[in-house]
Structure formats: structure tokens, C-alpha cells
Protein: Profilin
Amino acid sequence: MSWQDYVDTILVGSGHIDKAAIISAAGDSIWAASPDFQLKPEEMKDCALLASGDSSAKDKAIKSGLRIGGMFYFILHIADDGLILAKFGNSGVAVAKGKQAVIIGHHDERQNPSEAVSVVARLADFLKYKDF
Structure:
């Protein structure tokens, strides 16, 4: 399965995510993304640092939010395992770290946030143990 297949089939194909991206764990490249999900280099770097547990990135995100796809989301939760939950209005994002990649999934107001988070977290867990 290609990285784009993970985005199209597992994430967006679940029906719980409307757009998604998989970026490198360093936050320096996009490996796959939905066509309408544009991430800037600084947004990818911030997501990667936050998912890796960087304390200064955590402090910054808690104070100012997390910018993804040009929108600022306020942080709801940052777990020790690198799972981040954030929202803007009735939409939100879940960010989770796999072994080599960071998964970013967006849900809109029609989708259940808990299901969206679950889909992103399950893929991240799967990727933590997959050798490529």
C-alpha cells in the first residue's frame, strides 16, 4: 500500500476524515495528502515537533494554537504518545506520530470528532510497528 493509499483508503475512505496528510516525522516533506489539504513547511514542522513531544512546541501550541492548512486550531489535548487533538469551531484535526511519519486528519462539522481521532490514532499505531 502506498502512502497515498493510506490517505485515500484508510483515512478519508473511513468517512470520518474529510482530508488528510502524511508527512515525514521530521516535518520536512509531504508523503501523501488529499488534494485540498495544503500544508505549509512551518505547519508541517510544528506538527512534527509537537507529535514528537518537544516541550517548547507544546508550550507554543497551548498558548497560540496550531496552524494547519492556513487555519488556527486551539489545542484540546496533547497525549504523551504524540496524539494531538485540536479544533476550530465545529471542525478539528487529529495529529499522531507513527514510526517514520506524522498523520494529520481533518474532520468537518458533519463528522464525529471521536471517530476521526480513532481513525488517525489506529493508523499511527499500525505504522509504529510496520517496517518499510
About this structure: Residues 3-130 form a domain with the Beta-Lactamase fold (CATH 3.30.450.30). Residues 73 and 88 are 5 Å apart (CA to CA). The chain has one domain: 3-130.
